[in-house]
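Section 3.1: Structural characterization of target chains.
Under the original work plan, the team committed to producing a structural model for every single-chain target entering the pipeline before any wet-lab resources were allocated. The record below documents one such target. The sequence was received from the expression subgroup and is listed exactly as submitted; it comprises 384 residues.
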Amino acid sequence: MGMDKLKVMTIFGTRPEAIKMAPLVKELERREEIESLCCVTAQHRQMLDSVLDIFGIAPQFDLDIMEPSQTLSTITTKCLLGLEKVFQEVRPDLVLVHGDTSTTFAGALAAFYQQIAVGHVEAGLRTWDRYSPFPEEMNRAMVGRLAQLHFCPTAANRRNLEAEGITKGLYVTGNTVIDALQTTVAENFNFGEDALNRLDYQGKRVILVTCHRRENYGAPMEDIMAALARIARSHRSVELVYPVHLSPVVQECAHRNLDGLDNVHLIAPLDVEEMHNLMARSFLVMTDSGGLQEEAPALGKPVLVLRKETERPEAVQAGTVKLAGVCRDDIVGMAEELLTDPAAYARMAHAVNPYGDGRACRRIADAVLCHFGRLDRPPEPFEG
């Protein structure tokens, strides 16, 4: 008589989480010992659905919580109440949450309330500043306390948890986003946004820009946009491509500063497939997004981070990422160096990825089976 299958439920609600959980959902589906259940909270509706389509994932549960002008409190309470019903209905053996969103925290807390084990994918990232990134830093730290299994992308992430007294159930796996790139990047990719098919990626230097973080609202974002305008004006060989976040604050700031520049392309947000393929064809990435800091080095692209700090220091140490900050002159200066000094560019572009080897999901699935006594030995750790 065979053992019952392990019920493992993945929970996520935003596009970045979906990109990083999708390859894991596929890996869990491949394991005979596991019944894979997927629940989305849909904290971000349209952006989430495009990822589900690309990876061919049909969630068994969809809380559909998104509402106009939602707050952290409405997101968290709707997740808690919705997940309570889901857990009572299916009683998973393990709940897997990802990263640092309100869905992550509410998912871990709801599971704890039902005494269901929690696994934290992308565990151990820290800036050690409770209000930056806000609310993500505290979400991650609190989930670190609630989880029994911690899937750390890097050894440094593992050390962060150990410093907080969290020493059991730690696995260094690499980041699942590197697994995702294997599905998404294609040589002959055709973009939905026709402007992107027409760009001269060989003759021009395409700079991919994203800027949307809350802590950059106000003066920092004004400075960032002014810096982008200056770079575009002084380098005719540059094409700036900026998929603008749907936030009205970001939309207004971007259009006011960048409209009318013929080598700046303000376009609608891209789905993950388009983003990865655009990155693969770009010269440089300038971003305040966390995920792009991990993906770009895997594609050999330098990254300038438009923030004062980063919870992903490994790429800074590896030399593929630099903190440009949020001051106009600093940002312009760093971009100028990469545009004018081929040696400086080459130093950053050598593709060393401290974040993963594309086998993170396999390690996570093995670790889960090992934890529940279905596998004899834990997976070999990723060594970045």
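The chain has two domains: 6-175+356-371, 194-349.
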